[in-house]
TrEMBL record:
It comes from Henriciella barbarensis. GO terms for biological process: folic acid biosynthetic process. Belongs to the folylpolyglutamate synthase family. Gene3D superfamilies: Mur ligase, C-terminal domain, Mur-like, catalytic domain. Keywords: ATP-binding, Folate biosynthesis, Ligase, Magnesium, Metal-binding, Nucleotide-binding. GO terms for cellular component: cytoplasm. This is Dihydrofolate synthase/folylpolyglutamate synthase. InterPro entries: Folylpolyglutamate_synth, Folylpolyglutamate_synth_CS, Mur-like_cat_sf, Mur_ligase_C, Mur_ligase_C_dom_sf. It catalyses: 10-formyltetrahydrofolyl-(gamma-L-Glu)(n) + L-glutamate + ATP = 10-formyltetrahydrofolyl-(gamma-L-Glu)(n+1) + ADP + phosphate + H(+); (6S)-5,6,7,8-tetrahydrofolyl-(gamma-L-Glu)(n) + L-glutamate + ATP = (6S)-5,6,7,8-tetrahydrofolyl-(gamma-L-Glu)(n+1) + ADP + phosphate + H(+); 7,8-dihydropteroate + L-glutamate + ATP = 7,8-dihydrofolate + ADP + phosphate + H(+); (6R)-5,10-methylenetetrahydrofolyl-(gamma-L-Glu)(n) + L-glutamate + ATP = (6R)-5,10-methylenetetrahydrofolyl-(gamma-L-Glu)(n+1) + ADP + phosphate + H(+). Functions in two distinct reactions of the de novo folate biosynthetic pathway. Catalyzes the addition of a glutamate residue to dihydropteroate (7,8-dihydropteroate or H2Pte) to form dihydrofolate (7,8-dihydrofolate monoglutamate or H2Pte-Glu). Also catalyzes successive additions of L-glutamate to tetrahydrofolate or 10-formyltetrahydrofolate or 5,10-methylenetetrahydrofolate, leading to folylpolyglutamate derivatives. Residues 294-406 form the Mur ligase C-terminal domain. One of its GO terms (molecular function) is dihydrofolate synthase activity. Its EC number is 6.3.2.12, 6.3.2.17. Pathway: Cofactor biosynthesis; tetrahydrofolate biosynthesis; 7,8-dihydrofolate from 2-amino-4-hydroxy-6-hydroxymethyl-7,8-dihydropteridine diphosphate and 4-aminobenzoate: step 2/2; Cofactor biosynthesis; tetrahydrofolylpolyglutamate biosynthesis.
Amino acid sequence: MIDAQLGVETALKRFERYNPKDRILALDRLLVVLEELGNPHLDLPPVIHVGGTNGKGSTVAFIRAIAEAAGLSVHTSTSPHLVRFNERIRLAGQLIEDDYLVSCLERVEAALKGHRQITHFEAAQAASFLAFHETPADLLILEVGLGGRYDASNVIEAAACSVFCPIDLDHQAFLGDTITKIATDKAGILKPGCPAVSAIQTKEAKAALEAEAARTGNEIDFLTPDDLALIQPPLGLWGEHQFSNAALAAKALKAANIQGITPEAIAQGAASARWPARMQRLSTGPVTALAGEKPVWLDGGHNPHAGRALSAVLDTLDSEEPAKRTMLVSAMLANKDARGFFAALNRPGLSVFTCPIDNNENSFTPEELANAAREAGAGADAHQSFHAAMEAAREAGAERILICGSLYLAGKVLAQNDELPD
C-alpha cells in the first residue's frame, strides 16, 4: 500500500519501475490497465478534447471559465503542471486533494500487477480517469498531452467536441519534422460523428486536418471573423492572441451543444479566465526583488509560434509604456527550436540572459542557448543560475523583464515568488 502521508511525489515515483524502454506513444498499455480498473474512461461527463500545439492551456482556461459562468460544474485535465502535480487534475473546479490522488494512483499501480509496463503520463491519466468517473460534474475538458493519435487522453471513444488550437513545429522527434506530419498526428483525436472546431491554421495544417476529417467522416468548423467578433474586452488573459483562444473556446462549447452558453456567460468567462505563466505579471515577491522591483512578466512559450505571440504582446506593452526597455531571461529544453523562438520575437536590440533549468538534465546549457539567441540576431549572455541572469538583466538596465522559454522554468519561478497556482 502507498502511504498517503508520504505524499503525491513519492506515489508517482513508484511508477518509474514500470516505464517502457521504447514505444513511448501507444494506447494498448493504458487500455489494459483501464480495463482492469473497470474502464472508467468510458463513463465520463461530456468531454471537450483539446489538441494542437499552442494555446491549449489558455483555451482550456477559457472553456472552463465560460462553462462555470454558465453555472456548470467542470473537470479539467491539463499538463504539464507548474509547481504541484495536483494542478493537472481539477475536480468540479477544485484541485484534486493529495489523499484522493494517492488513492487513485495506488489503484492504478495495483492494476499493473507488478509486471505490466506503463509510462508516468499514462499512469497519471489513468488516475485522472478514475477521479473524473467517480466525481460528478457537467463537463470534462481533456487536454492532449503530446500529439494526438497515440496520446494517453485519446483512449476515450467519443467527444462532445474535438478542438484544434494552432498547430506548429514541436516535439518533432515524436510527431515528425513537418507541419503536415504533426497536424496529421494531432488530427488523430477526431471521433467519427463528433463535432470538431479549429483555430485559424496554416495552409499545411488546415489541409492535413481536413484530409483526416474526410477519412473519418467529420467536418471541422474553422474559426471565422464572426466568431472573433463575439469576444470583446476585457479578457482575463493578456495578449491579442487570447481573443482567438477565447473565441475558439466559445465555439467549442456551442459545437458541443453545452446548455447555457449565452453571450453573457461568454463575456463573464472571457473576463474571469486565469491561466498561470501565460503572460502573467508577477506580484511583488523574491523574484521581482531580483529585478529591483521593475515589472516582471512570465510566459512558458517555447516555439516559433509562441515567439510571434510574445512579440505582439511586447509591442502592445511598448505602446502603453514606451520608455520601458524589455530584456529576456530565458531557459529552454534542448529538444526545442531555440533559434526559431528567438528569431520569431524579431525585436531590434533584443537582449537575452540565459540560464539553466535547475535539476533538469534535458535543458540547453546557458552557453548553447545564448549561441542560439545570437544566431537569431539577439544579444545574449550566458549565466549559470536564474538568480545571476536576473541580476545581470537588472544591472544592464532592464526596465521590464520577461522570463520565458520553458514551463519548467516558469514553475520554478512561481514557486520562488510564492505564487502557487490554485
